[in-house]
């Protein structure tokens, strides 16, 4: 029940395309859902986050869509750029500071 | 504003040795969490400290321990190192008023 399932494991997108990464969770006590971006040799960097009281949050080219009834959330990267090539992790947190991470998606954006 | 600082960046240790990793959180942040990242297991929660008290602990053996000082800096210790402890160890800090967690660059531990 503590798991967060993430798909796909890897994703190849052409420059200008839309990248979509999906996550699903079981624990209804989770109330905070961040996405992290990690480049090789670096720590994860917070990209965007959402709480379950909203269905969508947009920051620049990055959008989180949240479906509370389905217990699913997804990251959309519009107009994907080669500089977006990185590993993306979804995560979930309940009433503690413990983050449960998905398994990661390696995104490659080709020019 | 300085980010989360982890030292050292790289470490090579021999099986059976022990190691101490350090984390300085963002100024004003009182919560520090530690995670282990490996290709096989992904990002796994080790423990979390707040105001010098361990609030949460993950499913790791007792060889993994930590502490937090009054200035919120935290250390993590691994005793009797095993080859499987080779990983990137990440520290994250967050403030009491904000749920956002910010990660350091990590310490790459290699056990040989």
Concise account of the structure shown:
The complex is a heterodimer of chains A (111) and B (112). With 111 residues, chain A is mainly beta.
Task: Walk me through the topology.
The complex is a heterodimer of chains A (111) and B (112).
Chain A: E1 4-7, E2 10-14, E3 19-25, E4 33-38, E5 45-50, E6 56-59, E7 62-67, E8 72-77, E9 86-93, E10 99-101, E11 105-110
Parallel strand pairs in A: 2-11
Antiparallel strand pairs in A: 1-3, 3-8, 4-5, 4-9, 6-7, 7-8, 9-10, 9-11
Chain B: E1 5-7, E2 10-13, E3 19-24, E4 31-38, E5 42-50, E6 53-57, E7 64-68, E8 74-78, E9 87-94, E10 102-103, E11 107-111
Parallel strand pairs in B: 2-11
Antiparallel strand pairs in B: 1-3, 3-8, 4-5, 4-9, 5-6, 7-8, 9-10, 9-11
Low-confidence stretches of chain B: none
Query: What spatial form of chain B do the alpha-carbon principal axes imply?
Result: globular
Oligomer: heterodimer
Main sheet characteristics of chain B: 7 strands, mixed
By helix and strand content of chain A, what is the structural category? mainly beta
As a percent range, the share of helical residues of chain B equals under 10%
**Overall pLDDT of chain A, averaged?**
95
């Amino acid at each position: 029940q503590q798991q967060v399932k993430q798909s796909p494991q890897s994703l190849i997108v052409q420059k200008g395309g839309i990248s979509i990464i999906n996550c699903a969770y079981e624990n209804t006590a989770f109330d905070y859902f961040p996405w992290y971006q990690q480049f090789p040799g670096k720590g994860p960097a917070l990209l965007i986050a959402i709480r379950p009281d909203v269905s969508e949050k947009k920051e620049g080219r990055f959008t989180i869509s949240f479906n509370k009834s389905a217990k699913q959330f997804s990251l959309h990267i519009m107009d994907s750029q080669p500089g977006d090539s990185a590993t993306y992790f979804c995560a979930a947190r309940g009433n503690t500071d413990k983050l449960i991470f998905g398994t990661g998606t390696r995104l490659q954006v080709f020019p | 504003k300085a980010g989360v600082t982890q030292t050292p960046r790289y470490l090579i240790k021999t099986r059976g040795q022990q190691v101490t990793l350090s984390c300085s959180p963002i100024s004003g942040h009182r919560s520090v969490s530690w995670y282990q990242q490996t290709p096989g297991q992904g990002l796994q929660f080790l423990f979390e400290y707040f105001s010098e008290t361990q609030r949460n602990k993950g499913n790791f053996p007792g060889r993994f321990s930590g502490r937090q000082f009054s200035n919120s800096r935290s250390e993590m210790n691994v005793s009797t190192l095993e080859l499987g402890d080779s990983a990137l160890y990440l520290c994250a800090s967050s403030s009491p008023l904000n749920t956002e967690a910010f990660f350091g660059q990590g310490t790459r531990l290699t056990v040989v």
